[in-house]
Amino acid sequence: MIRLWGRLSSINVRKVVLTLQLLQLPFERTDAGGTFGIVRTPHYLARNPNALVPLLDDDGFELWESNVIVRYLAARHGDGTLYPQDLRERFDAERWMDWQQTTLNPAGRDAFVQLIRVAAPQRRQDLVDASVAATEPLWDLLEAQLQDRPFIAGDRLTIADIPIACEVHRWRGLPLAARPRPRLDAWYGQVLALPAARGVLDLPLS
Predict the structure, then answer these.
(1) What distance in Å separates the CA atoms of residue 138 and residue 134, rounded to the nearest whole number?
(2) Looking at residue 178, what is its pLDDT?
(3) Is-contact 56 2, C-beta < 8 A?
(4) What one-character DSSP code corresponds to residue 180?
(5) Residue 115, number of CB atoms within 10 A of its CB
């Protein structure tokens, strides 16, 4: 049995849950992190010294870092579907996963934190504005990437789409004006329509 620790309010936990559901893998999830605690207990820290979520246990093999967990699950259980066998296709998908983690996520983080996690009287509009200014060009970059392909890394859904879809879910849940981007909208609509997206990409932010 696959076991997962982490609260669904975490974008990184949502990535893993989406992957598990895409692969139709049975799993047991325990809320952890934030108000649920657990992550600073000695038992948890022995398994994930970062005191963060998610943490995965796949038949005794323990793993942390969300994008790495997505890769592992797709490689072990995906039978070449989400994790391309062709090396050029695979590392194209890997590139977009790293881009999500190093570029897209940091750009949008302050807007999310200020608008969702910080009480209105304490919000800093300057941080929101800077985050919006950093993130909007990245959506344009994705719009261009999708010009000649239905999915981020090509003709089919891969590991590249999972973390980026979770970022789109988070951004579109913010009280911000959305600018239409037809190709990005169509791509996200495809992902959102998948049965695996239920209980993940249809959740309100918190």
Answers:
(1) 7
(2) 86
(3) yes
(4) P
(5) 19
Which structural domains are found in the chain, ordered by start?
2-77 (3.40.30.10), 87-196 (1.20.1050.10)
pLDDT in tens, 92-107: 999 999 999 999 999 9
Backbone phi, then psi, for 25, in 5-degree steps?
-95, 130
Question: What percent of the chain has pLDDT above 70?
Answer: 100
* CA nearest to 54, candidates 37, 32, 75, 86: 32
Per-residue tokens: 175: 């009280």
With beta carbons less than 8 A apart as the criterion, state whether 38 and 30 touch. yes
What distance in Å separates the CA atoms of residue 9 and residue 34, rounded to the nearest whole number?
A: 9
| pTM, 2 dp | 0.97
Torsion of CA 144, 172, 82, 54, to 10 degrees: 130
The gap between the terminal CA atoms of the chain, to the nearest Å, is 28
| Contact criterion met (CB below 8 Å) for 67 and 101 | yes
The reported pLDDT for the residue numbered 168 is 98
- Provide the pLDDT for residue 80: 84
> pLDDT tier at 79 (50, 70, 90 boundaries)?
confident
Tell me what the mean pLDDT of segment 175-181 comes to: 94
Q: Give 173: exposed, middle or buried? Use CB within 10 Å, 0-12, 13-18, 19+.
A: middle
Q: Quote the CA–CA distance of 15 and 6 in Å, as a whole number.
A: 11
Q: Residue for token digits 């981007």?
A: 181
